[in-house]
Amino acid sequence: ILHGSLGKPGLFTIRVKLPPHYKLPVHSHPDERVRTIISGTYYSAIGDKVDETKLTPFPPGTFSNVPQNVWQFAETKDEEVIFQITGVGPTGINYLNPADDPRRAR
Questions:
Q1: Is the pLDDT of residue 63 over 70?
Q2: How far apart are CA 40 and CA 57, in angstroms?
Q3: What is the mean pLDDT of the chain?
Q4: Which of 22, 72, 87, 97 has the highest count of CB atoms within 10 angstroms of its CB?
């Protein structure tokens, strides 16, 4: 967390680092946010089913809008990806399939 609080009302900025070959299952966020790719290429798409043919590459320097409450999925390929997200909290992440939520005890 670079600024603000994810669980409280107000502006926040976070930096996220994902390892190579990371897959982010179908999920949504309760807030609208903007994303800036700092390094690596992030692949993302809108939809409630993972379909790799729909993935759009977001190379370093890409600035994009992530809509509120829209199902999406993403992945990294052969490189680590670092990106920054700014939004207005409170924020969170909701997984379409609760079994995909890494916060759940397995």
A1: yes
A2: 10
A3: 96
A4: 87
> For residue 74, which of 16, 2, 9 has the smallest C-alpha distance?
16
pTM: 0.91
The 10 Å Cβ neighbour count of residue 42 is 28
What is the C-alpha to C-alpha distance for residues 4 and 10, in angstroms, rounded to an integer? 7
pLDDT band of residue 103 (cuts 50, 70, 90) is confident
pLDDT for 105 equals 66
Any idea of the CA torsion for 23, 12, 31, 10, to the nearest 10 degrees? 160
